[in-house]
Structures are given as structure tokens and as C-alpha cells.
Design goal:
37% of the residues lie in helices and 17% in strands. The protein is of the alpha/beta class. It has a 7-stranded parallel beta sheet with strand order 3-2-1-4-5-6-11, sandwiched between helices. A two-stranded parallel sheet has the order 7-10. Strand 1, helix 1 (14-23) and strand 2 (27-32) form a beta-alpha-beta unit. The longest helix has 18 residues, at 88-105. The two termini are 23 Å apart. It binds NADP nicotinamide-adenine-dinucleotide phosphate. NADP nicotinamide-adenine-dinucleotide phosphate (NAP) binds next to helix 4. NADP nicotinamide-adenine-dinucleotide phosphate (NAP) binds at residues 7-14, 32-34, 37, 55-58, 76-79, 91, 95, 114, 116, 150, 152-153, 159.
Length: 308
């Protein structure tokens, strides 16, 4: 793949994927709403092969410009909160469809959509429903699209251990949403970035949906205990019903960087674990890293730098 357009190329996942592509010698276009942020986030990548496009998946013309002449397109855009004209439907359903349609019109060979385990077009949750419908409309507009559903991702700058550790440092009490019984299969963000890179080169990937999970399944309660152990704190763990957590998340969503969103609460209502019936890391020959190996390198250490 010589030219790859990456929507969301400055995000937690997107910037790692962009770095890999650039290192492999691909010409990369980063398509985001805030190109100036892209410049600082991607400084480490080697500028001669990375260009930054100002694009919004809700704006068809900007999408068309970003995909024109590309060999592959990756959509790693995320909207975790609805505000300022951004809705889950406009980004994860209509925006995903726009990217797929424009990629098909431009004759792009490969499209990868990053979705998530649990995406369900029939869900009562507006976030989960938009993710599920997004997958469906992308398949219609670009039948050879590859859909990627990761479980919760960890790595420096994550919203999982990073947020748990931040809350635990601030508060004497930690909420255990839904009693902490939800099962998750956290995956290292670099393993997901590597998986997408391999999919682009794999002739079996078009038309497939992959589910990507880490090497072990944990309950939310176990993950909270791991975070506490790493930062060396003891905290009272208080079970909080989903309905109460959702009210709290709604209030948090008024903050610029909410530590918890209503979409995350909705996702925690069901286990976030690979079904085993879809291809995953094994088919891509990737041995996933254990969180016990990675998380201590950035949680519990003061001032551990987050890579670009
Ligand atoms: N993080 C996880 O644990 C996790 C787990 C499962 C699945 N996922 C999925 O993985 C994907 C990437 O997530 P992430 O955590 O890396 O997201 P993120 O860090 O929030 O990054 C989102 C990226 O999307 C861009 N963006 C947002 N709205 C846009 C729009 N309307 N048009 C164009 N670009 C837009 C952002 O840049 P600008 O703001 O400059 O536009 C940014 O580059 C998402 O689909 C997410 O749902 C994430």
C-alpha cells in the first residue's frame, strides 16, 4: 500500500498506526478536524511521507479530497461524547458511510473501519447502535471493507488504566460500575496498530470482520485492583448500579475531558470479549502482549512519557 489516508490519524490508536505505516515507507495522509494538533502529535514520524488534511467525516467534500488517489483508507475516527453538533449518528453512522462511499467512488482498493466489540445496530444505546449501523452502511457502500472490533485498548495515554489511576489518586472511594462484574479482554494498542498494518497487506482481509482481544479476560473489578496495586493505593470499592453510573457519566460529559461517558457505561452492560467465531490476532500471526507486561511501564511511574 503506497498511499494510505487515515481518518483519525492523531488519535490514541490512529497515531500509532500512522507511525508504523510511515516507518514501512508508505505515503500517509492524516485526515482530522484539527490539523494543527496533528503536526505536533506526528512530529516523530518523518514529515516527508506524512501530510495532514483538514477533514471532517461529516463534510463530504473534505472526505473526497482526503481519499482522492489513495490506495487504502482507514477510518479510526471516534466521537465518545455528543456535543457541539457532533452526534454518534453523524460520526459513526453517516460519517462512516461518507468515508466508505467516497473511497468506493475514488476507486480505493482497501477500506478498514475501526469499530468495537459490542457494536449492535439494534441496541437501545445511541452510541452502540450508531457503531452497529455504521458497520452495516459501510458494508453496503464498500462490500470489501475490513471491519475491526477491538476490546478496550491499553497503552500510554489510555482511557482505561490511565483514567482509573487518575480517579484513584483523586478520590478516596472508587465506583465499581455494575458491581465490577463485566468481563473485558483488554488489548495493547500497539497490537491493534500492527494488526491493521497486516490486514492492509493480507489478501484474505477484504470483506472480513475481525475481533481483537488481548491474551486474558478480566472482570472490571480485577482491572481496578491491578490499577490500585500499580499506583500503590488502597481505596474503598463501592458497587454502583448502571443507572446511577449513567447519571454520573452525563454530568462528567459536561467537562472538556470526561473520565467516564454514557457510551462507556452502556458498553459495560455486556461482556466486552471476543466471541471466538470471527478471525482475530491468531489469523494475523500476532502474539498479543499481556497487560501485566505493559501497564507497569506507564502507570505508577511518575512522569513516564507518552510516546507520540
Ligand atoms: N480507545 C479504546 O479503548 C477503543 C476500544 C475499542 C474501539 N475503539 C475505537 O477505535 C477507534 C479509535 O479510537 P481512539 O481511542 O484512538 O480515538 P481518539 O483518541 O478519541 O481519536 C479520535 C480521532 O478522530 C478524529 N476525529 C474525531 N472526530 C472527527 C471527525 N468528525 N472527522 C474527522 N476526524 C475526526 C480526532 O481528531 P480531531 O479531533 O482533530 O478531528 C482523532 O484523531 C474509534 O472508532 C473507537 O471507537 C477504541
Amino acid at each position: 500500500m503506497t498511499t494510505v489516508s487515515v481518518f483519525g490519524g492523531t488519535g490514541f490508536l490512529g497515531r500509532r498506526f500512522v507511525r508504523r505505516l510511515a516507518a514501512e515507507g508508505a505515503t500517509v495522509r492524516v485526515a482530522v478536524r484539527h490539523p494543527e494538533r496533528a503536526r505536533s502529535a506526528l512530529r516523530a514520524v518523518g514529515w516527508n511521507r506524512v501530510t495532514v488534511f483538514s477533514a471532517d467525516v461529516r463534510d463530504r467534500a473534505s472526505v473526497a479530497a482526503a481519499v482522492a488517489g489513495a490506495d487504502a483508507v482507514v477510518n479510526a475516527v471516534s466521537a465518545y461524547v455528543e456535543k457541539g453538533g457532533v452526534t454518534f449518528e453523524s460520526v459513526h453512522e453517516q460519517g462512516a458511510e461518507t468515508v466508505a462511499r467516497e473511497a468506493a467512488t475514488a476507486g480505493v482498493a482497501r477500506l478498514v473501519l475501526i469499530s468495537g466489540i459490542g457494536a449492535d445496530p439494534e441496541s437501545g444505546s445511541s452510541y452502540i447502535r450508531a457503531r452497529g449501523r455504521g458497520e452495516l452502511v459501510v458494508r453496503q457502500a464498500f462490500p470489501g471493507a475490513t471491519i475491526v472490533r477491538p476490546s478496550a485498548m491499553f497503552g500510554p495515554g489510555d482511557a482505561l488504566f490511565g483514567t482509573l489511576a487518575d480517579i484513584a489518586r483523586l478520590l478516596p472511594v472508587l465506583p465499581l460500575i455494575g458491581g465490577g462484574r463485566t468481563r473485558l479482554q483488554p488489548i495493547y494498542v500497539e497490537d491493534v496498530a500492527e494488526a491493521i498494518t497486516r490486514m492492509l497487506a493480507d489478501p484474505r482481509a477484504p470483506g472480513r470482520t475481525y475481533e481483537l482481544g488481548g491474551p486474558r479476560v478480566y472482570t472490571l473489578h480485577e482491572l481496578v485492583r491491578i490499577a490500585l496495586r500499580l499506583i500503590g493505593k488502597r481505596r474503598l470499592l463501592v458497587p454502583v448500579p448502571f443507572a446511577v453510573a449513567k447519571v454520573q457519566a452525563r454530568l462528567f460529559e459536561l467537562l472538556p475531558s470526561p473520565p467516564l461517558t454514557t457510551g462507556q457505561v452502556d458498553l459495560l452492560k455486556a461482556d466486552n470479549v471476543a466471541s471466538g467465531s470471527l478471525p482475530g490476532l491468531r489469523e494475523l500471526n500476532i502474539q498479543p502482549k499481556a497487560l501485566e507486561e505493559v501497564v507497569p511501564t506507564y502507570i505508577g511511574r511518575s512522569g513516564a512519557p507518552e510516546p507520540d
